[in-house]
Design brief:
Number of helices: 6
Strand order of the largest sheet: 1-2-3-4-5-7-6
Largest sheet: 7 strands, mixed
Length: about 190
């Protein structure tokens, strides 16, 4: 199975309610806040669908979702403050039944997340330029993000935002878009 990403408003709203990430917080975000964030230009939410269904535009299932916005990270050099323009993955979840603990033969989480990174790379070269991808990882996603090349932020100041979904114990992570990253996400 291959996956594609489409904007949340391209799928029937009943599919949003059918999606189960295994977390009430993420499920509620998808059904209650995602469209509001999109309408308010806070973040655009995309849902992960089957590639064949995208071709027909007849969607029967959502396999994951991600809310994306632009942000920046501040850092200092010897002589001045600088700014790294980034895409931020504010929310990311996959369907509960696709998690590794339910099927140990295929890493669906990694496949879906890499397809998201591929979409973001394409955005960075065709829609709006950014040099990195930023996210705040909860403990459940930390290993996945590290496997995909994200590193903990040490030299940057994370953005402060007015509205965040209250997720405990998050770690800020960053993936710089470069040739090494491309090799990893397009394999």
């Amino acid at each position: 199975m291959c996956f594609e990403w489409v904007r949340i408003n391209e799928v029937d709203k009943s599919l949003l309610s059918d999606f189960d990430s295994g977390s009430g917080l993420f499920n509620e975000f998808l059904t209650e806040k995602a469209q509001k964030w999109t309408d308010g230009s806070e973040a655009v939410t995309y849902v992960c669908v089957d590639e064949v269904e995208k071709e027909t535009q007849i969607y029967t299932k959502i396999y994951g979702f991600a809310s994306i916005n632009t942000t920046g990270l501040q850092y200092s050099t010897i002589d001045k403050c600088r700014y790294l323009n980034c895409a931020e993955i504010r929310m990311f979840a996959i369907a509960k039944q696709l998690r590794k603990r339910h099927d140990t033969t295929i890493e669906w989480s990694k496949i879906i997340f890499k397809s998201l990174l591929q979409m973001l790379y394409e955005m960075s070269t065709t829609v709006i330029g950014f040099k990195a991808i930023f996210l705040n990882s909860n403990k459940d996603g930390y290993h996945l993000y590290k496997e995909c090349g994200f590193e903990e932020i040490t030299d940057f100041i994370s953005p402060q935002e007015d509205e965040k979904v209250d997720i405990e114990e998050c770690t800020p992570l960053l993936l710089i878009i470069n040739d090494d990253m491309l090799y990893d996400i397009f394999l």
